[in-house]
């Protein structure tokens, strides 16, 4: 491509809402332009990089035996109502009505659509297993679109769905997709981890997220450097250090002791007032779980994980009770506790962190009073225990005992074992070899294609601009002609441009009538893997070659250039 004809509007300054490096650089380099909040157009360089990511995805999906198809983006409401997700999915689902008043949704995901297709087209076990995928635009009404392509309302996604006859078959399909994802992200030049995760609104059982490590990531990754256990914070499990011991506070009392704690409503205030470590205070969090009141108990130094509450109770919605609702169940805001609440009216659950606690403190359900001397085994004998908390710094790995590490990550992809969640709800069955009717056993596998593009830029840049991995760079080579008025330089550039293209190497030729400094600065901003500069030695057919990532510069004769470029560009995409 000749750069003087390229639609590549670079920017010196970027909007103030471009908070992260990938967003700023993609705007500055002319890869994307915003149409509305969370909605972007891909300009030629951005689209070329996106196509290269799609190519890698297609190659690896095909290698894993998946078949590509394309499904509609407009879904009739009846499909989502039949699966139960029309109401469950929430306000992120973009809904609309046609001129006849029929309700539709713009596809946020395609489990319902693919399940009905397979239900109607496959009836025998002889056609199984099968994995189908598509690359298509998805729509979600994000409350707060941010970070450019990392959290948008319209985005490109690869979604795949496997259909098997047994759990063992699903295990095999799941592993094939897991391995394909590992190859895809490695070929895209990303540093990433596969972590155990929660399935959220998609549903299902076993699930892993593939996370690109980045300081600006919105997800927290908990991992063990020793045994390689990794999970996101919603799912992570750890082993707490022993709680601090106490010398009095009623540790040896035969019953809880009511203590006046005037206007003491926070864990920090209570800890200071009673000279009691927060790890010995049991905090009571009043929740509405699917509309019913629930009190969740955990140590005062820990944080409640609402996703774990949902999973523990098999719920779909968790929210905090209002002050009025707290009074309605017989308690007082700031002094909530499990003792004395009517169990028939309020369900009480507890995090495993409070098991075995003695001499503990808990709210008394009376203004300005707490109980001390609480013995969890004695006083909370009927409470059901679960893992309800976030893992915290300093905890040990539950597998090998080493100290867990924390990192930030950008979600790139997610793989799920759905089982029969959708096939049972939508009547998708097949006939086995015994003529028995069985539901399909399903898996679901997604990659945020446009997110991958942004994550690559987030991980691959320096103070001058983007540093593309060769596998997805818009062009492998950026050819610069320093003096376009020089006939010999232009003739050599033209010959080199044609020779490289004939060898299958993509080339962006900067043939603009611009100062050398502008060309070099733009080349660094655009970040193609190799830069070839035709300058003063054009008469000798010598060209300077610079590696964008390493900064290495060498001079090459015209005859050496094609082989050199092929060698350096191919090694990054050789998995």
UniProtKB/TrEMBL annotation:
GO terms for cellular component: cytosol. GO terms for molecular function: aminoacyl-tRNA deacylase activity; ATP binding; catalytic activity, acting on a protein; proline-tRNA ligase activity; transferase activity. Gene3D superfamilies: Anticodon-binding domain, Bira Bifunctional Protein, Domain 2, YbaK/aminoacyl-tRNA synthetase-associated domain. It is an enzyme of class 6 (ligase). It is found in: Cytoplasm. Residues 33-469 form the Aminoacyl-transfer RNA synthetases class-II family profile domain. Its EC number is 6.1.1.15. Keywords: Aminoacyl-tRNA synthetase, ATP-binding, Cytoplasm, Ligase, Nucleotide-binding, Protein biosynthesis. Its main location: cytoplasm. InterPro entries: aa-tRNA-synt_IIb, aa-tRNA-synth_II, aa-tRNA-synth_II/BPL/LPL, Anticodon-bd, Anticodon-bd_dom_sf, Pro-tRNA-ligase_IIa, Pro-tRNA-synth_IIa_bac-type, Pro-tRNA-Synthase_IIa_type1. One of its GO terms (biological process) is prolyl-tRNA aminoacylation. It catalyses: tRNA(Pro) + L-proline + ATP = L-prolyl-tRNA(Pro) + AMP + diphosphate. It holds the Pfam family HGTP_anticodon. PROSITE patterns: AA_TRNA_LIGASE_II. HAMAP family: Pro_tRNA_synth_type1. Homodimer. Consists of three domains: the N-terminal catalytic domain, the editing domain and the C-terminal anticodon-binding domain. Belongs to the class-II aminoacyl-tRNA synthetase family. ProS type 1 subfamily. Catalyzes the attachment of proline to tRNA(Pro) in a two-step reaction: proline is first activated by ATP to form Pro-AMP and then transferred to the acceptor end of tRNA(Pro). As ProRS can inadvertently accommodate and process non-cognate amino acids such as alanine and cysteine, to avoid such errors it has two additional distinct editing activities against alanine. One activity is designated as 'pretransfer' editing and involves the tRNA(Pro)-independent hydrolysis of activated Ala-AMP. This is Proline--tRNA ligase. The gene is proS.
